[in-house]
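Quick one: Large ribosomal subunit protein uL18 from Pontibacter cellulosilyticus, structure tokens please.
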Amino acid sequence: MSANKVTRRLRIKKSIRNKISGTAERPRLSVFRSNKAIYAQIIDDTTGKTLVAASSAKLDDAKANIETSNQVGKDLAAKALEKGITQVVFDRSGYLYHGKVKSLAEGAREAGLKF
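--- reply ---
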């Protein structure tokens, strides 16, 4: 991965984070994807605490593909609904809304999260 690709994503991530922030009523759903896994967490930015987290590394099928990403989204939404979180703000962290990131978001929507 070239340095330009990394700095480009970080620049986009910074721009996104300047526009959105998670509150207690509507926390932020943040996504991170690596070559091996995809991670998602719901964060309350006012207190700086992670409320709910899920990842493909914790699933039995630890591959980071589109089907697994969808399952991670559903798992995260189920945990969030148990804690009483129904609405979130989606933070794609500079990644394109395509492929694994899109699949995670669709899985979370299917399971009941609103964003």
